[in-house]
Specification:
By secondary structure, this protein is an alpha+beta fold. It is built from eight helices and 17 strands. It has one domain.
């Protein structure tokens, strides 16, 4: 999920990112037939949501003797490149967890905060403005099609595509439970047209041989929405998300004072480090918020220190278009 929001990143500009959100209907609109006195009162119907950036860092330590031992004809890998890419992959894993958290402990806002109906968000109290509430529903232990439909209905406005959820994210355990529930339809569909797959950053589902290569989610369709599994998703949760209602905003510029030491990271396919972390770092958005502090020699040790920094924030302007089922343990 972090790969998806990061790849669609937008620039973080200024000290905070702010949105004006409608919370009260303007009642001044009226029908008329002639020369009646028309309404002309000003109505304050909006409140601001304001989000400050957060920062994460992952160190990369180089040991001089290890580097010396891994050069020449016997060298097997470029150790310095490997450590650079491993540090980036480690950062991705930690941020993959943070995207489901509640924004505490200096972390960016996660789905645990955005898809909630209590506390504050963007500096505003949800107890004061119910329009800021997402749909947070306890499953009672079981997942059913009726509960899923109720959750979907609660988060969308009629059938307008821009105001309806577009993806469901859950754990592998819950994914398997849903598959059991849908087994007859799953078998019939997959045997005839293949198992549906969706790219990590794609918005549509692909089927058949054309979906075999690349970085893909395995998925199921329910109400026309793909359901995917994420190792980092909170245990027992299913999130039903409208990705047009929230997003990642990353810093993209380095201040003049820091340009000699820090450079913007262009995330791309890794060469020395393999695995899920390496594949998921092939991200197109330049507004990912990633920076790299160049190596510096440690003053009292035979080694170097460098760092990745990730600066930005997950912001939402319409949390009510999202929902979740919690405590799912069976069907």
């Amino acid at each position: 999920m972090y790969s998806r929001v990061l790849s669609k990143g937008q620039p973080f500009v200024g000290k905070t990112m702010d949105w004006a959100v409608d919370v009260v209907s303007d009642t001044q609109g009226e029908f008329f037939v002639g020369l009646e006195t028309l309404n002309s009162s000003a109505v304050s119907s909006t409140i601001p949501l304001s989000f400050a950036h957060t920062a994460f860092t992952q160190p990369k330590v180089g040991i001089m003797l290890e580097s010396f031992a891994n050069i020449g004809e016997t060298a097997t890998i470029d150790l310095d490149v490997f450590k650079y890419e491993k540090a980036a992959a480690e950062a991705l894993q930690k941020l993959g967890t943070a995207v489901y958290a509640d924004g505490t402990a200096n972390r960016p806002n996660g789905l645990g905060l955005i898809v909630d109906d209590s506390g504050t968000i963007g500096g505003q109290a949800r107890s004061t403005y119910s329009q800021l509430n997402a749909t947070d529903t306890a499953s009672g232990g079981t997942f059913t099609l009726a509960k899923y439909a109720t959750l979907d209905d609660a988060t969308r406005a009629a059938s307008l595509m821009g105001t309806t959820t577009n993806i469901a994210v859950t754990t592998k355990t819950v994914f398997s439970l849903i598959e059991q529930l849908l087994t007859p339809a799953v078998r019939n569909e997959y045997s005839s047209i293949g198992f549906p797959k969706m790219g990590v950053r794609a918005m549509t589902v692909t089927r058949g041989d054309q979906a075999q290569a690349g970085n893909m989610f395995l998925t199921m369709n329910l109400r026309g929405k793909p359901i995917v599994a994420d190792d980092f998703c909170t245990t027992g949760y299913l999130y039903l998300l409208n990705e047009d209602s929230f997003g990642w905003f990353g810093r993209s510029l380095v201040s003049d004072e820091w340009k000699p030491f820090v450079e913007k990271v262009d995330l791309g396919t890794m060469k020395a480090y393999e695995g899920v972390g390496a594949e998921s770092l092939d991200l197109p958005s330049e507004y990912n918020g990633w920076f790299y502090q160049k190596p510096m020699v440690l003053p009292n040790q035979a080694g170097t220190i460098s760092r990745f920094y990730v600066v930005g924030q997950m912001c939402t302007w319409e949390p009510r278009r999202n929902g979740r089922l919690t405590g799912i343990t069976g069907v």
